[in-house]
Amino acid sequence: MLYMTRYSIRGERTKERIGALMSAFAERGEIPGTVAHYTAMDGTGGLLIIDSDDLATMYQATLAYQEWLEMEVTPIMTIDDAIPHILASLG
Question: What is the pLDDT of residue 56?
Answer without folding.
Answer: 96
